[in-house]
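We modelled the chain as a single entity of 131 amino acids. Its sequence is:
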Amino acid sequence: MRAAYAQQSGGPAPALQGDSCANDKQPVGAGHPQPSASTAELLRQAQQAQQAQPGQGSSSEAWMETFTCPITQELIRDPVIAADGFTYERSSIEKWLQKSDTSPMTNLKLEHRILIPNMMVRAALQNMGLQ
């Protein structure tokens, strides 16, 4: 592609964003921090920190709220993302969409009814042993 640009423009092609990794002979992603702990480990650390600081809200409760369907208030087992960007339990949002074309969270009309599996939430639930 760069050669085609040079032929068309008569000059060298501008540097592409990804060229620096190739020129530096470093693997892509070099210099970027890698995840060091699983979600389960992070949850364990948060629980230990909470025990060391009594009197504040439980971090495990906050984690559970993150993985709770906003429609049913139950733990999500099959997480999907709706057009509003929120994650729901698949069966709950499917039932909702049979009756309504609005978001359960914003009450605004949804642009579409396509549900996309939320692989990040699924992986986090599996890492914590909740699936």
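As a brief sanity check on the tokenised model: The radius of gyration is 23 Å. The longest strand covers residues 79-81.
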